[in-house]
Amino acid sequence: MDVIKVEGGHPITGEVTVEGAKNSALKLMAATLMAKGVSTLTNVPDIADVHVMGKVLKNLGATIEVVNEHELKIDTTNVDSWETPYDLVVQMRASTAVLGPLLSRFGKAVVAMPGGCNIGARKIDMHILGLEALGVEFKIDHGNIHASAPHGIHGATVTLAFASVGATENLMMASVFAKGSTTIDNAAREPEIVDLANLLNEMGADIKGAGSPVIEINGVSELHPVTHAVVGDRIEAGTFLAIGALCGEPVKVKGFDPRHLGLVLKKYEQMGIRVERGSRECTCWREGPILPADIQTLPFPGFPTDMQAQTMCLLSLCQGSCVITENVFENRFMLASELNRMGADITIEGHHAIVHGVPAFSGAQVKSPDLRGGAALVMAGLVADGETVVSAIHHIDRGYEGFVPKLVSLGAKAERDTLPDLDHEI
Ligand code: UD1
Q1: 320 secondary structure, DSSP code
Q2: Is 123 in the pocket of ligand 1 (CB under 6 A)?
Q3: pTM of the predicted model, to two decimals?
Q4: 3-class secondary structure, 363
Q5: pLDDT under 70: residue ranges of the chain
Q6: Residue 318 among the catalytic residues
Q7: Which numbered atom of ligand 1 lies nearest the CA of 299?
Q8: Atom 22 in ligand 1: which residue has the minimum CA distance?
Q9: 23 Cβ below 6 A of ligand 1
Q10: I want to staple 344 with a disulfide (CB 3.0 to 4.6 A). Which of 15, 292, 339, 370 is the partner?
Q11: Which atom of ligand 1 is closest in space to residue 122's alpha carbon?
């Protein structure tokens, strides 16, 4: 059983540089399927989810050369399959990002139906409804989604019921070669959507409006491979800035655009956190107590659900009480009971978490509930009394490259360890 052990109370300060964004890299990798030849992606994070997407592409017939850990040369010339099986989708839901590119390239795709995951049911009905409007027909059997466009993909106006990141991306990729023009209304506006549209436009697509609620795609006949650098990871950056805010001494984070954390940083200022913004870097520290602030997660430019756990950790030590409302995923408060094991006082009422600030965390054995929740537990361990042992760290490995070494470089006393599994003999 792999764990991260953290001894609390060591001064944390210094500088870290974040990697490229997980949520962008995965979709850019999928998009290379649409341009036959060798595309090069740089600034790709070396994380478990990227390895799974690599397996997905190789399973379809692509070859991938990894240069210096962070550069992928993806050759999609010989891709000859349009099927992504369950054993890959079950490892990572984002494998479904190949649906749009495969429809674009082959006019058909078979992708295993993703199940729910730790943070919620995560349906894909909006992907399906939107693609149907573009002329795609669906049949679902034996746990697989069979998609085909027997009469070709044609432009249409699709209004999303919710600004879904995944649905916006799949629709954008499926409509690049469509006959005529497509409009995605109530599109997601995340920086990773903009990064994907930039890549596709560099490849020769005609996409306008990415980053706004209305995206227009005029169909083109082909794309060509390119070299593209993945946008900096705003969530990894936010995690380290939250660590500076929690521990108190300045933590400078480089390699991302602080405007991508606009509302997070504004909220942190309301919480008494000092924030210094640069063009490609940002520093957070604290001179007084953490002040309570109500938070509600929303699609970009709202407060990101992917920063909710780290912020819950921070607010657990606030001077007063506040409410965190989770509007994006229905099951993203599992961290609360683990933080309560460390002395926090958090009550869950539906999609609201009522946080009563406590003076300190007490080190304990805790279990990562999911990716961001796992990082938040390690973060709590940095200021806890005594040792904290965080298990189920495969969640953290999905999205953070070198999390422990980066913390150690900031002064943390933290290490990975392998503990013997308990013998469950009955
Ligand atoms: C992406 C990110 C994830 C982030 C989330 C919201 C990746 C790999 N993951 O996930 O880190 O937390 O955006 O910013 O990029 N929904 C439906 N039907 C659909 C699609 C979505 O009901 O067809 C619901 C989901 O269950 C969820 C909400 O809409 O409750 C938002 O989902 P979505 O924006 O699609 O998130 P993902 O793309 O899965």
Answers
A1: S
A2: yes
A3: 0.97
A4: coil
A5: 116, 422-426
A6: no
A7: 14
A8: 123
A9: yes
A10: 339
A11: 26
